[in-house]
């Protein structure tokens, strides 16, 4: 190979090699990497690093890619754990997203019964360890196929940190890192296999910080001004505001700091808010009301308040022709096969759900294609407005599992989760090959994307021009 971006020529000679023949078979190429998928997923699961702190997880993915001949750009978009890895030459350029951040405040062993791990303060309750490992496997399988067949094109893996409330991809989109890509492929662990055309909610968050005056709560209450009172006053007004918002609105908060002792009037308190809606313009319109509640809370309690925008995501923009193509690729695959031990493990997990859990066989089915609006948010939304993006969900969790649950942590650290991850990697690989070899689909999808986005569309992030909040999980 001439360089990290060169392709091997001479397909007649290559066809004679059993290794090359296997690499030209995309399904076999993914199957051959199952050990790598499980090893990488389990290691990232063990580390459970939080957003923008994923130095080891990001480093592991880069090491694996370098070993396969990918050229790496590190620290992109001014984020130490963000990277781009590329192999090939010419076009089209097809990117894959790879997440790897964990969630704070939840952990679990891979046991099918509740079993928190002592001293561990985070867990992969959204399966981003599987997300990163599966995209890694797909990127390498695609690279092997490009090399073996001599097909012009580049495969690019985007290492995207801090999806959970950090909007890592938004900073990458804002930096123009997706502008030269033709298509992007995205996946996520779930309890079913689906390529639904799913539109997410726009989302903006901020930490509101109140500052007051500390004093003895009993001995000199008149001298104090409680920052916690400011937080509670704001929360009361926002909770009354809920009655006067549209149905798609979602507002939630957590008090991240409220004082340390009841007899000390707190001079600092902080509340962390999320505001969501299906329309980004509605988020922008409602946001001043949230700020007004903060100002009112401070005014009424004799405190001061300031706030910091932490993250903001645009809604996803599904491209119907691409989602239908991905649904077709899912249906081409053999169903996921589980061992008797894995099925027994999954059955025990399901017992924790109570009555009404879906059948375990759901994990071996492909759901009918549908167009839906989900009520979560993701920074993939900003990617999907920069470049045509196709997404899928794969059954890496036991049917009935909710994201951000201990059951999701358990599956994400178990061989059950690896099986779904391999399934996703196969679908992504087949979809990439379709895009490399089907110019009619590429033309149709790009036209559909332009129409859905609008010809006069100008990208605007919901987090403004702030720098990445690299310390938001510290």
Automatic annotation (TrEMBL):
GO terms for molecular function: dipeptidase activity; para-aminobenzoyl-glutamate hydrolase activity. The lineage of its organism: Bacteria, Pseudomonadati, Pseudomonadota, Alphaproteobacteria, Sphingomonadales. NCBIfam families: amidohydrolases. GO terms for biological process: folic acid catabolic process. The keyword Iron does not apply. The keyword Signal applies. It comes from the Bacteria. This is Amidohydrolase. GO terms for cellular component: cytoplasm.
